[in-house]
Amino acid sequence: MAAVTLSNIVKRFGTFTAVQKMSLDIPEGSFCTLLGPSGCGKTTTLRMVAGLLDPTEGDISINGRRVNDIPIHKRNLGIVFQNYALFPHRTVAQNVGFGLKYRPVDRAEAQRRVMQALELVQLPHLADRYPSELSGGQQQRIALARAVVVEPDVLLLDEPLSALDANLREDMRVELKNIQKRLGVTSIFVTHDQSEALAMSDQIIVMSEGRVEQVGPPEEVYNTPASEFVARFLGAANILEARVTDRQGDELALDVPGFARVVIPRARAPKLGDASAAKLVIRAEKLKLMPADSRDDTAIMIPAQVEAVDYQGQAARYFLRVGDHALQAINMIDVAPFAAGDSVILRLLPRDCAALPVT
Amino acid sequence: MGWGLIRLYAIAVYAFMFLPVAVVVLLSFNANQFGSFPMTGLSLRWFEALWNNDAVMRAFRTSLVLGLMTAVISTTLGVLASLALVRYDVPGKNLITTALIAPILVPEVVLAVALLLFLNWLGIGKSFALLLAGHVIFTLPFVILVVQARLVSIRRDVEEAALSLGASPVQTFFSVTLPLLMPAVAAGALFAFTISFDDITGTLFWKPGGVETVPTQIFSMLRNSISPEINALGTVMILLTVGLPLLGAAIARSLSTKRGR
Shortest CB distance from B259 goes to which of A76, A78, A130? Predict the structure, then answer.
């Protein structure tokens, strides 16, 4: 059963439409991510589920109950905000216990649950501190404890990691995901960070300009993007104009003039249909640079020129030219990276390509 | 050399500002029966005379009641107005803000006469209620300015967090917004009290016959003679209007350091 259901949600602010006809099922106990650039409507959607905004049209239900007319404080939610939003005038324990005051929980039970929640986020020793005495990471854990202690029907996470610095963010993301799994609480996570979305989600909902572009598990969204937007937003991708030259069984032959002829599995082009024009999507890390004299009969080998190199430590990003096509590749560095001006061979496996319809 | 001059100049400015006040305070302890130099000895006799002066004590009580009521009403209205103006989309927000702040900008005499004429036109006579209304009108801007500034700095998501945890909007206000707003509310109340307690211009216009506040009482006493009691009364006024805000600030500071902020 879906824990949260959005049906035909529309949200307008004056003449601006922030969310357009959005329908979505969030399965019970899953970790779903609304992913998209700023202004795509992801936060607006979250705030509508929270009850902080009213949808202009459409229905929202939580656990089968329509909540459109139920105010936020009666929806039994937990929200974790980007800037923690702890109560500065209350201690950590009082912060965590805040929601229990409005529920039929006696004092001893409340105290036990507060400590349990603090242990969950590994900060039981900070119970008597004030939020201003804690680091950003600690504050966000307390905010998480405060949100889950009330055993919410849905946990809403509004870019909870964005205010933390890079290293901490990666630790927190593992921890957050672990806690969510342990509690099994249905979670909706909002982020513009694709690596967070890929690492944490059961389902990713990619949004753009108020519309859902694609819904699917991380691997599917990453490997088989449903639109050019998704392909470009998740990681670096090369998108080339192609002609469909042949369809046989499960295979599809695509010809990119001046580049290559690629035969890909039909499954990698689910949206293409019978169109004769297509776009070939090649992830930057799937183009492997090889020395100019390399041979490999099992792959497509394309001669290319390195135009520029962006050195990133363990990997390098190459800007390449094949005839009229400008391409990008991201490769791990084996010994030394290729240099600008080098002639190389690009090795490409057809199964790593995907095709999109031309829109 | 340059700094020496600046220091000297600063001392001169402060002396100019505070010496008259110091003289009043000093003379209030003078044992002499005339309220002027030379001092003949230290004594509290003028404070005692003040204590036994019914008119002064009555005026003092009036001022205290007026000041406290002004503070309570002004602060309540000011907090509500600030909440509406900061947290909600009120049509004509800027106009309302300007109108609420205007009493500071309009000369007090004009405001005093205007309110009087307006109430005359409505056929309402002078009363204590009118006096109170007048004081509320021109202390309100101070409360609104202080409270608004603080309210803007209270993040909306803190309130949203409280709501999401099950607190109703009213519970959220009393358990989150108001405690965080408290320093500004206290400051606003103190402002309102001291301004009301000090005021003479508006009070002279608005007070009903027979009612005197401390400033109007001093004013009428001065018309007859310069009694040393006035020095004593001045000292008490200074103590109240300077001491109270200082005390308030000290309490606010100790409260906030306790919370480590």
Answer: A130
